[in-house]
Write a structure and sequence with these properties.
Shape of chain A: elongated
Oligomer: heterodimer
Number of helices of chain B: 2
CATH architecture of the largest domain in chain A: 3-Layer(aba) Sandwich
Distance between the termini of chain A: 115 Å
CATH class of the largest domain in chain A: Alpha Beta
Order of helices and strands of chain B: HH
Radius of gyration of chain A: 35 Å
Number of strands of chain B: 0
CATH topology of the largest domain in chain A: Beta-lactamase
Helix content of chain B: over 70%
Distance between the termini of chain B: 117 Å
Structural class of chain A: alpha+beta
Shape of chain B: elongated
Largest sheet of chain B: none
Strand content of chain B: under 5%
Largest sheet of chain A: 7 strands, mixed
CATH superfamily of the largest domain in chain A: DD-peptidase/beta-lactamase superfamily
Helix content of chain A: 25-40%
Chain lengths: 565, 105
Amino acid sequence: MIDFRLRLISRLIPVIALLIIVRLFYWQIFRGPQLAAEAKRQHLDVVRLSARRGEIFDTNGNVLSGTKNLYHLYAYKPLFKDDNASVASHLALVLTPEIAATDPAQIKQTESEILERLNLKANWISLKHYLTREQKDTIESYQIAGLNFEDEFVRFYPEASMSAQILGFVGQDQNGQEKGYFGLEGFFDRELQGKEGLQRVEKDASGRPILIGKYLQVKNVEGRSFVTTIDRKIQYLAEQVLASGLERYQATSAAVIVMESRTGKIRAMASLPSYTPGEFYQADSDYFSNPSVANLYEPGSTFKVLVMAAALNEGLVDPESICDVCSQPLNISGYTIKTWNDQYHPNANMSEIIKYSDNVGMVFVAQKLGSEKFLNYLDQFGFGKKTGIELEEETSGWLKPKKEFREIDLATTAFGQGIAVTPIQLITAVNTIANNGYLIKPTLIEKILDAEKEIIPPPSPTQKILSPETVNKITQMMVEAVIYGEAKWAAPKNIKIAGKTGTAQIPIGGKYDKEKTIASFVGFFPADNPQYTILVTLKEPQSSPWGSETAAPLWFNLARKLILF
Amino acid sequence: MPNYDLSSKISLTNTLSRVVVVLVIVLGLANLVLTNLIVTDGVRLNSIIEKTNLLAKENQELQAILANSKSLASVESKAEILGFVATKNITTINSIDVVAQIPNQ
């Protein structure tokens, strides 16, 4: 009997040992890597360190575009202890839109919508995006197991639609990652975004970090913030004036740029119609790009001051020089050049040519300059190339190539036709007169705020184009154009303004449409010591097609308000 | 004649061995004690991290509320409620051009 037991045990031991070895082999060799990965996952916590998108401020530090933390509510059904109907009835009290929160029918509808989602055949169900902190706290106070929140970062614009076309907006790219489009959000997207980091830390069974465990950290880099040159008070005034002008003159669109004359800093850049960046998905995409830098137009008579300045600078004319071809229409290469009102001023001097906005007189001036010098000045003033302003959608304008530039092109360009410019190009060029003959690059950036330091960009580069004598002469001509020109009825009495009106017809299908115009006024004030250079453009005003009756009063109205700054 | 040199070497080795053993024990104990102390600090660290995150979030939310309250649209509506009205006419007085002027007058 004992022998039998001994034999049985001596045979069972190797069999059991073999079974154990086989089992261990299975767990350690076959399932080993999987279990190791599982264990690693359980005790190693990997956290993505998100980089907060930088903010955009006005020049006084007021937020124009910021990021706020909202919450995404989701349900994990395996952890539910209450039934779906009970959860839905609790949530409906919080998730019903505020305006309908007292309406029982509306609450009931929200409840049924939530219940419908909870009844989906899935463990993880997204219930509601963009909850506020108060909503989150209220839901948490119900202590419903299985409901949870995750952070969502949302761009917000405290000034709503103000500066929309300067700021741009933040949407998502093809991979669902946030991305800035248009304006500053688009131009500085990478700097604003920053860089995500990663933290890997060993944790105990309760999920708490083990300080002596493995630890790895790749630091996140917060997005840079930008302080713009925009003064929100000036921007607000500009938008108010523009909105009233758009209504009064029944124009299809309008734009205004206010530039600080000595520095090239843009203090306001407004255009209408506009949109609210926080609700960009509801807006027409035509409004996204900033017309002040993206839209081309023929500058018309506002261009005359630049051509005159070039001729004065070359010493080819002076304010008293007489135009000996101004008594009648001028024939050039088979085309007849007329004045805007078909009235002619024999022996008009250069000041009078600007005052009367005389096209024939300007052809006389351009012919004195000749094509080569004329094109050289246009190039120096920055036409046909981008100004370099920090906006994504800036275009370079259009200028006829030198080899195709004929006599008739010289004549028409002299009074602002046959050339396409952006409003920012025109104001930058005219600001050369306000800035004592120095062309200065326009800028929207005052300083950049890094996590560690403040970066102040170097002053905008300048280029001397006009002599101080030329500046004095052309400024005086522009002052007289305001005092005695077509817009004199609207000019403020006690502010010395140097300016010029412009009315350009819109080319449609290769021909100029007589009914449709772009009315504009460009100038600076006070003329003796310029503070601001301003350009106002109105597209297709219905009450009057003339710049002197539409854009100029708007310009003067804005100047009256800005004199207080 | 006894080999003094060898015996002193053996004595030195014995002393060193004892020191090493003592050191190992001391360091081992120190490691044990410190590990125990640090391990429990994980709980504190966790709560500090949670608190920091919460404060950062609150700070962000307050900044957003502040920005909204300071917005010009909000200020304008508050001013209207308080009875402020916008000036309709702004009168500007230009300085007169003079031939000569006494400084600081």
